[in-house]
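Page 47, continued from p. 46.
Same chain as before, 445 aa.
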Amino acid sequence: MKYQHKKTEKATLLSVRAIAAQVILQVLDQGKSLSTLLPEVQSQVKPQDLPLLQEITFGICRVLPRLENIIKKLLDKPLKGKTRIVHCLLLVGLYQLLYMRVPAHAAVDEVVNATKSLKSDSFRGLVNGVLRRFLREQEDILAVVDKHWQTLHPEWFVNKLKKAYPNWREIIEANNQKPPMWLRVNQQQSNTETYRALLEEQGISAFECDNPHALRLAQPLSVTKLPNFEQGAVTVQDLNAQWSALLLEPQNDELILDACAAPGGKTTHILEMAPQAKVIALDVEAHRLKRVEENLARLHQQATVVCGDATTPEKWLAEIGLSGQLFDRILLDAPCSATGVIRRHPDIKWLRQATDIAQLVTLQGQILKALWAKLKPNGILLYATCSVLPDENDQQIQRFLAETSDAELMPLPFERTESAVGVQFLPQEYGGDGFYYAKLRKCSA
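Result:
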């Protein structure tokens, strides 16, 4: 036990800037996501410093190419190998100087001091010199770096957007913004307008929209400040993600599958709309199902939570005693590139590779085929992704319809062109994230 105590004590000595540099290093060089890394380091950070850590790490991922270009102007040769942690520390310093309201001298001092706890003390002078040089020459350096519009996105992704959308620049600009915070009002407890009035009483401004369950907050805030959050009155969920349960139209007493259910926002929405439905929440990652169970508990709801592979439904159906059972409705929120939620998860830009897309398209097709076999005649399957890439969306559904004689495309309640297959939402500054939906009915024989 003594050893563990010492280890914890040592961990707390790391400054927020040092931890931020370590996190960024693991994102860039090891392909780990911020949503995995930040919970792991939470215990090393004082609760009041967590927003700072999040702001720095998410912010760096959002504007990474700009910061990298600045570093190229400031260093004679790149920092590689074991010195990559120093490179990441410079990213932390530059992000603070450019984007945060931290006094310049304090920002530089904090980052320079972080070299010691990162065992990079010999680079103290270099870090100090580079950041102070940037402050002196900032105007000239930025004039060169910012001469041309920067997408702040990887080239392969920009090329895909150009090919698919005439308004590709608008998508990129929306991706580069911080996302709005959307709430889903639990209609079992109160209606949307009543909850908005309750927020206003607490001095919290919120706006309604065309989604009847959604409210957009004027400013993001901690869920602890939301009235009756712990009692299940609201859930934090993006506007366009909220269409899933509404389009699925769940009914009481139906057997419904929420495939790829974690973290549980869609599962709980289904149960808010149909409290007597028999819902199975499926996900292939056991650790992510904990979030589903937490959300169900907060909302006092019941669902069968299953860890299993959506490509082999018979296997996990047998394990829960439902072998041979068919579903009335299936929500397939398919594994995808997540290119529609980049503004919420800016590390996606640097974690996703062009080669991932074809593999994801194949997997989506396999899941669609496997789950379609588990749908009742006249049953509904709602296909959803948080992607903006046609390969994963309308092209996937067009191919499925061509290969599946008993599949019929259902209309959706949105304006669209005659030839459109499903509906594609694109990220918008005050709107929702990028999302795609297609609603399919299984024709009876």
